[in-house]
Amino acid sequence: MENKPIGNANDTRYLILIAILSIVVPLVVALLLFMPQTGKLGDLDVSFLPKLHAVLNSLTAVALVVGYYHIKRQNRRLHRFAMVTAFVLSSFFLISYVTYHYQAAPTTFGGEGTIKAIYYFVLLTHIILAAAIVPLVLLSMYFAISRQFVRHRKVSRWTFPLWLYVAVTGVVVYLMISPYYA
Fold it and tell me: What pTM was estimated for this model as a whole?
């Protein structure tokens, strides 16, 4: 593939959309976390969703590592497939996560002492980086799709490790809090 961009004329429009999504998505998630909307979807049982979230995060982490592996071996086709898979899995996760927090009562971590400090450290870094990863993922995807590979590589150097951290710590947070689900 060439390293020649295919759509720089539309950059401003897409970058504005990415900026808007990068603000709106974390705000919606924050609102749901700080103002739970328990039961707004009637009797819909969402108790299985935290486990699904852990599975989606695990599969996202695997897809990210597979994508990294393939780009290091210059296999762009398999890299692209793995990264689109990671994006789709993360998108499904986000939709499911918002649904869960719109419907379910919040769960409180019941551990004490050092484990509680570790849990809240992992949770806090996970939340902060999950918000930060939104624009990075969107920019990485946009630059790849628009064939701006130099810009794609620059952003992806940050996107990959942070996205992988968010995916892995999502699973860790689930494993640590799962004993306390009602």
Answer: 0.87
